[in-house]
Amino acid sequence: MKLLSLAAAILAALICGNVSAQPQAYNIIPEPASLVPAKGSFKAAGAAVNCDPSIDAATLDLIRKFATRLSLVSGRNSSMATPVGIEQTLANSSVKGFLFLNDPSLADEEYSIDVTPKNVTVKASSYNGFSYAIATLKQLLPAEIYIAKAGTAKMTIPCCSIKDRPRFGYRGVELDCARHFFGVGQVKRFLDVIAMYKVNRFHWHLTDDQGWRVEIKKYPLLTEIGAFRSGTQSTYDRRQNDGIRYGGYYTQDQIKEVVEYAGKLGITVIPELDLPGHMLGAMAAYPWLGCTGGPYEVWTKWGVSDQVLCVGKETTFGFLFDVLDEMCELFPGEYFHIGGDECPKKAWEQCPVCQAKIAELGLTDGDGATKEQRLQNYVTKRVQDYLSLKGKKIIGWDEVLEGELAEGATVMSWRGTKGGIKASGMGFDVIMSPTDYCYLDYKQGEDDRQNTIGAGYARTKFYDAKNLYGFEPLEGLDEKSASHILGVQGNMWTEFIRNNHEVDYMLIPRLFALSEVQWSPKESRNYDRFVEKARAHFKIMDILGYDYKPL
Ligand code: ACM
Ligand code: ZN
Prior knowledge:
Elements: H1 3-16, E1 34-43, E2 49-51, H2 57-74, H3 86-91, E3 97-102, E4 111-115, E5 119-124, H4 127-140, E6 156-164, E7 170-176, H5 184-196, E8 201-205, E9 207-208, E10 211-212, H6 221-224, E11 228-229, E12 246-247, H7 252-264, E13 268-275, H8 280-285, H9 314-330, E14 335-339, H10 346-350, H11 352-361, H12 371-389, E15 393-397, E16 410-413, H13 418-425, E17 429-432, H14 435-438, H15 465-469, H16 479-482, E18 485-492, H17 500-507, H18 510-519, H19 527-544
The structure holds acetamide and zinc ion.
């Protein structure tokens, strides 16, 4: 709670006598920008749901779903007033029930909720604003609101006044569907839970050394060959391999289905085509993409491969542009992630074609970068230029900063925050996603019941919810640099994370902590209070069937 709202709460308590703050009743995650508790409660069961006629059809659909759910779990009908009825409803000062009102003075993701014993007034100006308001309303209701079957639950909402908006505009979570493949249903289930915590970007890691997961019609072998590996390193021994064929991919229709589904949850999907390293999936299918010409295999082990795209050849760019043509049709968002991480330069040093390209471009060592690093800058720039013709901006992992990065790129800082601090100081937009806090595949504790999972297995530090909760994305930044921090992302790499249960366990409750870092004002963060709220949310997770690591 902000100091101001805290003061208002105390004042309200003094005026109204013995108002109890009932903190257990306001278990909202992420913590709203401002919440002023009040006395009494609103009886939601059977309350009418009135909507401003200027609310668009998609938003009305969201509200209708909420009304339907409320009716179902309470056993009493919360009917939607026809939109045209609202003027009379509003004119009638004795109006009771829910009032959903368009308020153009509110920013895109902003909303307010005022709960009195008589009515609940919800204001927003956009689909996402109303969607977040409904997410908050559900958290104010008893956990039974999440039960998808008929009941007679007592549905009340504690009185309060909430004014809420996000601290950061970019609030992302990444899921690696290359190392392990998660089907459309699993991805939707993942989207459902991140949306509950007001995450608005899904970074979909679709290609890597261990598998290519997106259908590209012009290059059918990418999925016929590149989507399957002959086995998997299932222990920490890099020589070990379970010998079981593994793979899968998304058809273009399935990708469109996921993108549309995410859109309804207020989430933009950002695809990642990781290049010029992490490309063995593609190179196994089309060996001419590599410096040696192959043969290559879809990798069965974890780590960083020395085999990367041969970027001295024009044919490689022809391939990349063709793939981008098809992928850009599938993903309407403004950002495209081009990877750029962990690209060893050994193959380029030994490749006559890449060396000839370096000579042709006049690239040299010096100023803190090798000529091969500058060759990667050339790749980044060509892909960036191609995507900009399609109206897309690129995001790259912080390695793209080595050498020279062209204006307009956004840097995703993963090797700590130093890359992000440097990039923002240079005027680049930045998304903070440092391993030390935001890697959701890293071990959460010694007692981790799944201590065989997580790429951070070799580390001795633990990366639990408390650690993530303590992350301050703007630390060490002056005001100008801070203005370039678009937001924060959590990353779920899946080398050792194989199924829903393992994803859930690694995600929750770190997702809860992440959401407060992404959304809530810095001064409202309070870990002890967070733990109380998280425990209440575990009940919701139980109802919805998500696994979690208990606190
Ligand atoms: C990364 O974790 N290689 C971005
Ligand atoms: Zn080469």
